[in-house]
Amino acid sequence: MKKLFLPVILVVGALFLFAGCASTSSASQKSTEVKKESKGFPERVNWLEVPSLKDSYSGIFENIGVAVNERDLQGGDTLEGLVYHFSSITMENEFKPQFMFNWQKPNSNGTFTSSKGVTIEVPTNVPSFTRMDKMMNIAKSFGLRMRGHVLVWHSQTEASFFRENYNASGALVDKETMDARQEWYIKTILEHVKEWEDKYNDGKRLIYCWDVVNEAVSDNATVNAYLRTNSDWYAIFKSDKFIVNAFRYANKYAPADVQLAYNDYSCTSPAKTGGILKVIDAIQAAEKDDFLPARIDVIGMQSHVGLNNPQTSAFDIAIRKFLEKNIDVQITELDVNDTGMGSDLILRARYKALFQTFKKYQKVDGGHGISGVTFWGINDERSWISKNGTMFPLLFTRDSNGYLTKPAFFGCIEAASEE
Ligand code: GLA
Hints:
single chain; alpha/beta; eight-stranded parallel beta barrel; 13 helices; globular; binds alpha-D-galactopyranose
């Protein structure tokens, strides 16, 4: 079964890629048709009969991405449209620490000596790479690149990882031990990916960016207290050391062409923006260190936004501040908290305005800017904010006819072709 899987995927992948190229060539014809169509509503069109989103944004953003789950990659019409519209995928859950640990209690059968010379017991039963390798194989065979999400996060990480003897109900370990565990985890994941890329991807990057740290800044950040406190990471370190160190270890173990990102939500709120700027400053202050220099390349703005809030002017302010730090921005988890089909037109306008704003900061050669936009899900029915079919946050919907565009899709397409 396993032996059959890869060849089948490769053949099917090649066919889809071929189909993708063929449909790309007719994309410009289609874009004129769509302009006509998009004046009327509803705009429910099969998602393969419209211009490709990624082609519409080619030359503007390096990647147009989408969050997916393992089952989206099994084949069929999901994968077909995914490859047609998107160049990059983020695993919604599968690369998070909890999934990499496969919900297993780590054993203490191995040892690891950190860069700082601290020797600790480490598990040999986790992380488990079976699922990750399967996802990377599929992504590669369909020509998709991946955003890695996530290495260090207070959530969706086994409680045992932070505790004595890897016992979920034990006491938290001390800083030195946790620092070494962090290095071990980051090293283990990043070296595995690099080995896979060397072996199966001609040494080229499949995972072009990692969210090294997610959501470590407080929603009410102030100059002196800007870190999230309800976190085992914070409870152990009581400072930003675990953030800066994560970027040191990521820099040590990731190839130089893997982008290293700090990712967070509500990045446009002044308090959060201020807190994130402090994180950037702390990491950049460690960039020139001789021993374990840090590196940060990207701020990931999750962007789970409302229909009206934050205003696009708030994006302007935050994006400019991040870019002033000489790093790039990626929109990493875009969706619009839309509570009703009645607001189709408003959602369309909202997406259009967001993309008009993002486009203003597109990355140009030799400069910094927005290098990619990732949607947090393919279709409304599968979105994490869908509640019994009462939320409509994304560009596509799916019914018995397959995947259909929503008016919001055309809002994004229109913004792409504007001067
Ligand atoms: C946050 C995380 C994501 C995901 C969403 C909900 O934004 O960064 O990984 O868990 O919440 O799907």
